Amino acid sequence: MKLVKVKGIVIREVTYKDNDKIITILTDTLGKVSVIAKGAKKTNSPYLASSQYLVYSEFVLYQNTGYYYLNSASVINTFYNVRVDLDKLQIAFELTKMINSVTDENQDCEKILQLFLNTVYALDKFEKDKRCIINAFKIKLFTILGFAPRQDKCSNCSKSLLDSQEEYVYYDFVSNVFLCEECKSSADLKRLVKISKATYSAILFVIRTDIKKIFSFELKSYTEFETFGQVFSDAIMSGI
Fold first, then answer.
1. Is residue 4 within 8 Å of 60, Cβ to Cβ?
2. pLDDT value, residue 240
3. Whole-prediction pTM value?
4. What is residue 105's DSSP assignment?
5. Same domain, 138 and 225
6. Could you give the number of structural domains in the chain?
7. Per-residue confidence (pLDDT) for residue 139, from 0 to 100
8. Is there a domain that residue 225 lies in?
9. How far is CA 199 from the centre of its chain?
10. Which has the closest alpha carbon to 11: 121, 147, 120?
11. Is 61 a domain residue?
12. Gap between the Cα atoms of 136 and 92, Å rounded
């Protein structure tokens, strides 16, 4: 029996038979995998903690008849503060639902795992505006998946958006591009989101910076950032 050691976080758990579970783990080397954890619901099970939602562990797995089974596990982080806070837990549910929607079994998910771990850690430890955390996650997730908009220039006239004196830029969520003030007049206004330069700079920061640093910015208001994150992710999800 060949054993495989991985690190990963449980992003879904369902009951299987009376005392077993099927857990979905986002791993560092196998991608997203479904694993049968036999006896995991028993109070004396060695898998009781590691098979719970949002628990990050080192797992030892084996395959039998095409299925992965849990052989042993060692907990690394339980993210306790998230799991006992209903508001934070609801955010985690929203983010794992999105991850499950955009990833397939055994797909390379190392960067997505890193992003999600960093996000859950921020929810667990930081007193940060939740709109910042949720929408920075969404923007970075779809950047990792290759859906980042053209960022530094107007899609129509190629004017530098950061260097211009215009106060606002406009995001076309249908074409997934940014437009300048002048060019937005020739576009369908129903498909545009108006964004201040400060919010635009924050969006560029999240797209371009290292995963570990994506929450290292501040805005006076996260309303526009939240609107962009929601519209951007909804538009991409509808096309996937």
1. yes
2. 67
3. 0.93
4. B
5. yes
6. 2
7. 97
8. yes
9. 20
10. 120
11. yes
12. 14
Give the torsion through C-alpha atoms of 138, 144, 150, 151, to 10 deg: 70
Comparing 56-65, 107-116, 179-188, 209-218, the range with the smallest average pLDDT is 179-188
Burial of 229 (0-12, 13-18, 19+ CB in 10 A): buried
- Contact criterion met (CB below 8 Å) for 124 and 81: yes
Q: Residue 33: which CATH number?
A: 2.40.50.140
List the Cα angle 97/219/118 in 5-degree steps.
40
Q: Is residue 100 part of a domain?
A: no
Q: Which helix (H) or strand (E) holds 117?
A: helix 110-125
CA dihedral 221→222→225→227, nearest 10 degrees, is: -110
Q: What is the pLDDT of residues 99-122, one digit of tens each?
A: 999 999 988 999 999 999 999 999
Q: Which helix (H) or strand (E) holds 92?
A: helix 86-102
- Asked if residue 228 and residue 135 are part of one domain, the reply reads yes
Q: Strands of 177-179's sheet, edge to edge?
A: 177-179, 168-172, 192-196
Q: Clarify whether residues 51 and 141 are in a common domain.
A: no
Over residues 26-41, the mean pLDDT reads 95
| Residues 156 and 69 placed together within one structural domain of the fold | no
Residue 114 maps to a domain: no
Name the residue range of residue 182's domain.
128-240
Rounded mean pLDDT of 28-57? Answer: 95
pLDDT digits (tens, 9 = 90+) for 118-170: 999 999 999 899 999 999 999 999 999 999 998 789 999 999 998 888 899 99
